[in-house]
Amino acid sequence: MLKAIQISGFVTQRWSWRPSVLISTNSKPFSSLFKLLPITTIDSSISTLPRPPIMSFHASSTPQPPSLHSAGNVKNIKFCQWCGGQTKHDIPDGEERLRAICTVCGKIAYQNPKMVVGCLIEHDNKVLLCKRNIEPSHGLWTLPAGYLEFGESAVEGAIRETREEANADVEVISPFAQLDIPLIGQTYMIFLAKLKKPHFSPGPESSECQLFPLDDIPFNSLSFSSMVVTLSLYVEDIKAGKPKFHYGIINKRPGTSPSDIHAYTLDHHMHS
Ligand SMILES: [Zn+2]
């Protein structure tokens, strides 16, 4: 289940990847598998974007205050999760970020990003979407996806979420996209999958489930930017011949509303 994703009280762009340092395709094993793209903005017209064969990037980031490094506000952690003692907020020795530190047992409450897992289900040249029956983004369309649980692999979580939200039994075919959203501390891992049987129906968190031809995907009624990115990349790949594997960082454009699902850039985009 994915009950609270991609909602943030502020939006700003933390990183700016600029093509200034050329990376040899022989210098990093990764570059033999992926092509790095410079600043790229994806929207439903992604198919028109150029795909340079060799890329370069340079992280010209400006250090941000610790509060901008995490979606969570560490100051909201007022009590220790282990002993219940009161916390203080300080930067521990040897670290750079503000942490909540227990004044009784001394433990530090580290905050780390969460992984969201889901399936992009292909069936008869269509993709399966669910209309959300819960907030946020109630009434908008999404791929079946949600938070990975402890003890699960990413694949197991994606299959479970699909069963919960679409009552569909799927076989995972391959990874399709890893999308980081640093601002809100989330990483999406989306898998391509197919229905084991041609049956699906809305689970408790969905009001409808529907197969959409690629030309009819409701890009203006999707729930989150991550869904716009994933489905845009998928449509582009299929039109070009076959799906690739993608990595990218979704950054909201500064000054835009979190609810504006098209107001983002896909930075540091790499694909197989
Ligand atoms: Zn404690």
UniProtKB/TrEMBL annotation:
The keyword Hydrolase applies. InterPro entries: NUDIX_hydrolase-like_dom_sf (IPR015797), NUDIX_hydrolase_CS (IPR020084), NUDIX_hydrolase_dom (IPR000086), Nudix_N (IPR029401). Coiled coil: none annotated. Keywords: Hydrolase. PROSITE patterns: NUDIX (PS51462), NUDIX_BOX (PS00893). Residues 112-235 form the Nudix hydrolase domain. Pfam families: NUDIX (PF00293), Zn_ribbon_Nudix (PF14803). Gene3D superfamilies: 2.20.70.10, Nucleoside Triphosphate Pyrophosphohydrolase. SUPFAM superfamilies: Nudix. GO terms for molecular function: hydrolase activity. PANTHER family: NUDIX HYDROLASE 23, NUDIX HYDROLASE 23, CHLOROPLASTIC. This is Nudix hydrolase domain-containing protein. It comes from Crotalaria pallida (Smooth rattlebox). The lineage of its organism: Eukaryota, Viridiplantae, Streptophyta, Embryophyta, Tracheophyta.
